[in-house]
Amino acid sequence: QVQLVESGGGLVQAGGSLRLSCAASGRMFSTYTMGWFRPAPGKEREFVAAISWRGGITYYADSVKGRFTISRDNAKNTVYLEMNSLKPEDTAVYYCAASLTAGVFGPTSYNYWGQGTQVTVSS
Hints:
Strands 2, 4, 5, 6, 9, 10 and 11 form a 7-stranded mixed sheet that branches. A 4-stranded antiparallel sheet has the order 1-3-8-7, with no helix packed on it. It is mainly β and 123 residues long. It is built from no helices and 11 strands. The mean pLDDT is 94. It is 0% helix and 51% strand.
């Protein structure tokens, strides 16, 4: 069992930055692929970014590529999402998720979810 707690959300102006954190409980954190998702029109949750269990491979949605950076510190059981050049369309609740499956991009590939942290970008 893994419990995930997100933090770092808030209100920021367009062009600004935020750093989200996701702290995980459980001893198996280092074996999970970790991802970030957000709601989107027509989708329950849209893929934002993911990182492999060792951190050597990262994945990004086209809409955030070049602006967001995902990283992890397995010693601290924490995954991060650095968000730069934020746009109003990035406004959403951001969810952290953990996966033991081979899938990366689909929310059904993830076994555990956090409660989410709100990010609001004003224009």
